Amino acid sequence: MTAGVRQETHDARGGRPAAGRVRLPVLLAVVALLAGVGYRLALLTFDAPATNSDEATMGLAALHIARGQDFPVWFYGQSYMGTLEAYLAAPVLALTGPSLFGLRLVTVALYAAFALLAWRLTLRLTGDRWFALLVVALLALGSDRIVKNQLIAGGGYPEMSPAAAALALLAYDLCAGRPGRRLPRWTAWGLLAGLMLWVDPLVLPYVLGVGAVLVAFRWRELRGRAGAVLGIAVLVGAAPLLGHSLATGRNPLAAVLAAAGGGADAPAGWADRLHGGLLLGPSLGMGFCSPGNCATWQLWWALALPVLLVVGAVSAGRALRTGRADHVGAVSAGRALRTGRADHVGGGGAARPGSAGDAVANSRVGAALRLALVAAGTATLVAYTLSGSAGRTPVESSRYLSCLLVSLPALLWPLWRAARRLAENRSRGPGRRVVGILAAAVLVATVAGTGYATYRAAGTASAARAAEARHTELVGTLRELGVRHVYGGYWTCNRLTFASGEEVVCAVIDDELRPGHDRYAPYRRAVAASAAPAWIAPTGSPLAARLDERLRAAPGSLDLITIDGYRIYLARS
What is the pTM of this model? Predict the structure, then answer.
């Protein structure tokens, strides 16, 4: 039996499947995917979401790789967070130069891959094309936090979700005994797992959860060539991390813990952590909030998510324990076996008849993976709530919950089943009807809430374009003035250096004009060697106020040039 389920209907004579009914959700899913990609490309044309120096740091790494100048293992200035995005973007920037659009074309492609993988994964786990359409439609939407996670090339976030979905999809095919290309699938799983260990351990709960399912269902196969191939592939994927560890003598586990932020956060009270982790975090991180904030009414998802995690775990656990078919494929194959009618199974490939036992076995695999996705989502939420970031910076740090989108099929499947039974008038008794109504209401509220947040996020595009225009004017002005070395704040420096293609090199200073955090040390050395570096400060910033004080204290020591949004202080020779 192939691994997933084609949910096909038959005409009144029990003959040929009603192909039109099968194709409709597929066509609508294609429309949803194209709409999601189109929305994100439209944001790119507006330079939205607004870029920052961290993204510029990844862009500089990509430029250095494209030029053969440097091949960084880690995000500049730290020993964690792998630079996979920079290596993916390097061929594009080799053609376009230092372009924000070129840098983000890679992240849009990663989003498209995630949506496609989510469609296939949902079909594998549930066999329901209409439900898979719902998942793709939700992923096509994009609130402020969601599009930042998916489009900003700041390290790790754009690639974690597609990698986790691919790992789960490969695991289903391997556990369900999908024939052909077994060793290539084991190799692909190992390479992805190793790469994610290097890139960002935030995805580790999904790697470990899906890996546990592989071991549980395929431990005999892992004792042979498959286990050797898997182990070698993991080592190859994690080679950058392991090579750096061997070269520096650093324990690889220390790098993983550092990437996870273990022990690095400033103390935060438990009240703040619980508020940020369990109330603000889920609503922000899963796309229900307006840009930069959550209204009280938008926090309802924080109450729904724990319930969905519990219900999803119970539903998947019951199906796994009892083998009861809550998978459309098992129901379809069982009906075919009882009635003798032709039925088809398969996630989209060639179909062939199968036994009810085979279908139930595949349903158990799907249930195990749904349970793994729920467990990984729970672990992600708990780890985030325990971190100091949830208490100190809950709005911005909600990006740590980005992988929760991978768990959507497992979280929403019980709701979909209950609502579908209600729609088909199969809910027996008032209790089940109430459950069906509540499930349908939550699904509608989910679509409406994320849709409204997407509308609000799209409304910020013009402001992002205006901010980028002001920054472009800054770069052009510095070029006209012949300024090549400057001091500026952290959020100014690498953005300026990347936008100018390193024609203007910036070293970081704090608001008291002291040396700041330079992610790329050669820039500081170059500015320090300059005879007359300039200073750059955003209008109205504390740094601008400090430089204005210096100008008043020593009139004539600096020449001030103001442009929209920035103040340029030129040293007099």
Answer: 0.90
